[in-house]
Amino acid sequence: MVSVANPILPGCHPDPSVCRAGDWYYLVTSTFEYLPGLPVMRSRDLVRWETIGHVVDRADMLDYAGIASSGGLYAPTIRHHDGLFWVVCTLVDQNDDTRGGNFLVTATDPAGPWSDPVWLDVDGIDPSLLIDDDGRVWLHGTRLAPDPEHFHQTEVWVREYSPAERALIGPEHIVWNGAVRGAVWAEGPHLYRIGAQYYLLAAEGGTEYHHAVSVARADAVTGPYEGNRANPVFTHRHLGRGAGVIGAGHADLVQAPDGSWQAVMLAMRAADGHHYPLGRETFLCPVTWEDGWPVFAPGAGLLPRQADVPWASEEPPAGSWQPDDRTAGVVAPRDARWTSLRALPGDVTEAKGDALVLPVRAETLADAGTVAFAGVRQQHADVDAAAQLALSELADGESAGFVVRQSEGDHATVTVTRRGEEFAVVATHRRGGEERVLGAAVTGPAARLGVRVRGHECALLADDATLGVVDTRQLSSIATGGFLGLWLGVFATSHGAAPMGRAAVESFTYAPA
Predict the structure, then answer these.
(1) Could you give the angle at the alpha carbon of 88 between the alpha carbons of 338 and 165, nearest 5°?
(2) In terms of Cα–Cα distance, which of 430, 466, 461, 432 is closest to 448?
(3) Which residues contact 96 (CB under 8 A, 6 or more apart)?
(4) For the whole prediction, is pTM greater than 0.85?
(5) Which of 146, 206, 247, 308 is the most buried (most CB within 10 A)?
């Protein structure tokens, strides 16, 4: 029996959505302010995943300018029908509600290219779509109810979409307001046609500790929907803070190669029951059907630490990262795992042989701008990560360094600043917008900077010496606000002055301990 450790996609892979096309499964997750946006991952067995492309991979597809952390791309849905792949998603600007909105893109090849966005004239977040047996397309999503019975009550809407007109058509139908009175945010809705009935799956309770899965069914896609008397049909909130995994919800259903049903959903590994520095991750959950209703994790009622996958022929490759099986420890200059802030990595970095070059930019990590930054998700609680930097081309006063990033207001850095012929190193922790110096040293024009993370203890290193230690619980989104896990990366800045120099990342390693 092959089994796979949950989460199947560790690190910040929230709001998973999955579809099947032939023998392949395709999965997308939220990426917020990071680009490229919405990684498209492919698997034959729901176990071994590879990133084959990104939905948002062109600079002119979406306007990211000034979007702050935990804004950007929320909760995509991917579907396939008759040779065409569809993705719907929301672009959120938390500081400007007149920008962004819900959009739809399509592609014949999920690796791309994807079409330019078709903007949908509807408010709210978390759009999804059902392509019915007759070919009609039904868009749906969630938004705050205009006349709520309680705080943050939402409503799920359904409306037909015309591919020919590239617009929503016909009347809108409000089909759901949540299963539990007083529960916030019935969100992440997905509609399915299974047999003669339509099923509505929705998250509920907010995407944190009280997260849950509810389900309803109807004889017609537009309702009326009958809620399952067992709602919420899945949650971890009743297990208490000591469960180790909290916040399970935002599920999407798919049939496995053996015909069984499975769900992908987000949850958070929280060793102390509260903090989850790695963010919201993607888990696999078995599903059976009883009396016409889905039963999640039958007989157990919680996400398995090891998910049995009897249809799989091979274990995930030993020592590989999930979702990507690449050279262990090394992140090459054009590796698909690199992401940047509000810009594509190729627009703020250059590949020069085996080195990743960062032309200095004026923006700092504290700015919601286009920063000279490239990073990867932290996917393991215990990890060693380091960058070997060549700094001789920095101009006087310019800096480059290594960062553990949560947001503009919350991150920890090891920064080298050129002062004439001297290269000064400082370790800092920025918390709630206030920066504190943890330690300082002097290095040369070549420096090795990085971190050693063991549980919640993150040592900030310069040339293998510890300059300071940060508690990553202080960088977890439950402490800082927002929706993201941690990124480990490199940056360069002129601190607002006209940029002149560059820093070369001669190597970047990520090694689970």
Answers:
(1) 135
(2) 461
(3) none
(4) yes
(5) 247
Top-confidence residue, 335 or 455: 455
In DSSP notation, 403-440 reads EEES-SSSEEEEEEEEETTEEEEEEEEEETTEEEEEEE
- Name the strand (E) or helix (H) holding 480: helix 477-480
**Three-state SS at 445:** coil
- Give the domain ranges of the chain: 3-308, 340-512
DSSP 184-238: ---EEEEEEEETTEEEEEEEES-SSTT-EEEEEEESSTT-PPEEPTT-S-EESGG
Q: Tell the CATH superfamily of the 3-308 domain.
A: Glycosyl hydrolase domain; family 43 (2.115.10.20)
Tokens of 29: 């997750």
* Nearest C-alpha neighbor of 333 from the set 490, 148, 173: 490
Is 281 part of the annotated catalytic residue set?
no
Catalytic residue among 187, 204, 252, 324, which? 187
What is residue 64's predicted lDDT score, i.e. its pLDDT?
95
Residue matched to tokens 């990073």? 375
At the second CATH level, the architecture of 340-512 is: Sandwich (2.60)
**Interatomic CA distance for residues 214 and 200, integer angstroms:** 8
Identify the H or E element spanning 348. helix 345-348
From the candidates 15, 93, 204, 324, which is the catalytic residue?
A: 15
Cβ atoms within 10 Å, residue 242: 10
Residue 410 designated active-site: no
Residue in the block written with tokens 């080298």: 416
Q: Are 472 and 453 in contact (CB under 8 A)?
A: yes
Q: What are phi and psi of 170, to 5 degrees?
A: 70, -175
pLDDT in tens, 206-235: 999 999 999 999 999 999 999 999 999 999
Q: How many CB atoms neighbour CB 262 within 10 A?
A: 21
The rounded distance, in Å, linking the Cα atoms of 426 and 442 is 9
pLDDT at 325: 53
CB under 8 Å to 211, separation ≥6 — which residues? 203, 204, 205, 235, 236, 237, 246, 247, 248, 249, 250, 266, 267
pLDDT digits (tens, 9 = 90+) for 330-373: 888 888 889 999 999 999 999 999 999 999 999 999 999 999 99
Task: Report d(CA 208, CA 475) in Å as an integer.
Answer: 16
Strand partners, 80: 85
